[in-house]
Amino acid sequence: MTGLIILGVLVLTVLFVVGMYNSLVKLRQQVKNAWSQIDVQLKRRYDLIPNLVEVVKDYMSYEQETLQKVIQARGEAMKATNISDRAQKEGMLTEALKSLFALSENYPDLKANQNVMKLQEELTSTENRISFSRQFYNDSVMELNTKCEMFPSNIVANMFGFKQEEFFSIPEVERAPVKVDLR
């Protein structure tokens, strides 16, 4: 009888460890998938930017510095190597694009151009997708990190080498409140 109890406890322990392990694997794969979705949307944005710059440069002959900043920020963002580096460089690209769109307000012909309007709409749509993908990624990271920290799943996570992932957070520069000057 004692042997059966010990065998039952052993089987339940093994099933528990297998269940925890599988849930950790599932969460790790979810984080990888979420990161891939961010990459897909960023690639879409990278592909749209040269088209926008090409259309805009004919109208904005005096704003070459702004166009160069957009091109340079795009190149830097594409070279990012890790999550925090990518977040910082994507923030710089977003700021450069905001500057470009703000300057385009000074060019009525540019604002009325159908190609520019379509590209702006595509970029806005892509920015929304990127935002959603970042949120999904951070939600997935939170689930995995929580599971890696909570008892008793933290024991299984440590046994099998599961590590916490880094959140995709915005740079400090973007956290500053927007200043509006209505003079």
Plain-language structure description:
The chain is mostly helical. It has a domain at about 35-130: de novo design (two linked rop proteins) (Up-down Bundle), CATH 1.20.1440.20. It contains seven helices and no strands. The longest helix is centred in the first third of the chain and has 56 residues, at about 1-55. The model has no long low-confidence stretch (mean pLDDT about 85).
What is the element layout, followed by pairings?
Blueprint: H1 2-57, H2 64-78, H3 83-104, H4 108-112, H5 114-149, H6 153-159, H7 172-175
Helix pairs in contact: 1-2, 1-5, 2-3
Give the N-terminus to C-terminus distance in angstroms: 87 Å
Largest sheet: none
Number of E-type strands: 0
What is the 3D form? rod-shaped
Portion in strands: under 5%
Global mean pLDDT: 86
Sum this structure up briefly.
With about 180 residues, this protein is mainly α. The protein is built from seven helices and no strands.
Key words describing this protein structure:
183 residues; mainly alpha; de novo design (two linked rop proteins)
